[in-house]
Specification:
This protein is mainly α. The protein has one domain. The protein is built from 18 helices and no strands. The radius of gyration is 21 Å and the shape is globular. The N terminus is likely disordered.
Length: about 400
């Protein structure tokens, strides 16, 4: 045996040993840890902001909270409000209204409850996945770092990942109205959630789902009329559309486009690029007979979760909890292969560890990892392999709950 083979074997044994130890931790304890993590991160963000001269470490929560007050006072939601926070609000008027649940609270309890909402919905969703207890534990360890990053940024990405999984679950249970509601909530938070409507094609109740989607789109879209006039709501949707258009032109983000642009000088009309990505996403759906296969439907869900991040021109580090959840579903729901394991580990190192000091020093991360969209690389490669396997039927079998 040569040195290289011996080294590879040693690494494989080390990984198997570590995985065995991690998989033996009961998932219920990990779920409890995630909840404590949400509370702890919220408290740290609030307390560490007390000595800051301007703004806070939980700036995104402040943006969401203040958008509610801007809404009820009939102000434009989308300009800058530098006296309150940095950056601008980019979600729908409906999400501003929903933030009224938290806005009346002082920042600390509001932030805690907001992050708890994110993580509890996510936990409920993960429990619906067809994973054995050991695999679910490994899955939770796999996404831990990304969950921490998203919670630290006080964003909605953990919530969105949970809602998209729940949409899949409700379609599996033929609870079409609930499934449509989950998808429409994500769309009114981040518009790219519209890709998840493709999940409905995989089920016999697709026409019922289409009707439910239209109804929920109208109901949720008009909810701000509870506090503002129709004229003001029309103005806000126009303002939101203008912001999204300008925002799209000005950024490449930590995305597939950003990776190719910074590494290879790739330039292409962004709308055409996204359209090409959407068409490629749809290619596996041409295998109509595969729609009846549980693993195929799960992998379309995984494809949605990865797609909405790597094709998002505003993709950033905290959004990768969504993509890495998709990577986890892709890997842990099928039988293992060497190439899949390699892609999983590379995604873990280059996507999750690259945002910590575990692998990449802070200066290196700021100089190369973020500007060169390193986080997008292996999530994108996983997505391309997922599309290939789903299109050609080369994927492995679904792993059952008891395996």
């Amino acid at each position: 045996m040569n040195t290289q083979t011996h080294s590879s074997t040693g690494f494989a044994r080390f990984f198997v040993t570590v995985a065995s130890k991690l998989s033996s931790v009961p998932a219920k304890y990990l779920f409890g840890f995630f909840i404590l993590l949400a509370i702890g991160i919220s408290c740290h963000s609030w307390f560490s902001s007390q000595d800051m001269a301007q703004w806070t470490r939980y700036n995104n929560y402040v943006i969401f909270k203040q958008s509610f007050f801007h809404l009820v006072h009939s102000q434009d939601l989308y300009p800058e409000y530098p006296a309150e926070h940095y950056d601008v609000y980019k979600y729908s008027p409906s999400f501003s209204l929903w933030m009224g649940v938290f806005a009346w609270l002082p920042d600390l309890p509001g932030l805690i409850l907001f992050n708890l909402m994110n993580i509890v919905v996510f936990i409920i969703a993960l429990r619906t996945l067809p994973l054995s207890k050991p695999r679910l534990s490994l899955f939770l360890f796999f996404i831990l770092i990304e969950a921490m990053i998203s919670l630290t940024s006080s964003q909605t990405n953990v919530l969105i990942a949970g809602l998209l999984i729940l949409a899949w679950h409700f379609m599996e249970e033929d609870k079409v109205w609930w499934a449509a509601l989950m998808v429409m909530i994500t769309i009114y938070i981040k518009i790219f959630g519209i890709v998840a409507l493709a999940l409905f094609l995989l089920y016999p109740s697709r026409w019922k789902a289409a009707i439910a989607t239209i109804v929920w789109a109208v109901v949720l879209g008009l909810m701000p009329l509870l506090v503002i006039t129709p004229t003001q709501l029309q103005f806000l949707y126009k303002s939101w559309g203008q912001l999204l258009t300008m925002d799209h032109d000005a950024s490449t983000g930590v995305s597939l486009y950003g990776w190719w642009h910074t590494w290879f000088g790739f330039n292409m009309n962004k709308q055409v690029f996204v359209l090409a990505g959407a068409l490629l996403f749809c290619v596996p759906l041409l295998r109509f007979k595969a729609w009846a296969q549980p693993l195929f439907r799960l992998h379309i869900l995984a494809s949605v979760l990865i797609w909405v991040v790597i094709f998002n021109h505003k993709g950033e580090s905290p959004t990768y909890i969504i993509a890495m959840t998709g990577v986890g579903i892709w890997y842990f729901t099928q039988k293992q292969t060497g190439i899949n394991l390699a892609l999983l580990l590379l995604a873990l190192v280059c996507t999750s560890f690259s945002s910590t000091d575990l692998i990449f020093p802070y200066k290196l991360a700021r100089t190369y990892v973020e500007p060169f969209a390193v986080k997008a690389v292996f999530c994108s490669l996983v997505w391309f392999k997922l599309i290939w396997d789903s299109t050609t039927g080369n994927g492995a079998e679904l792993i059952g709950n008891n395996e």
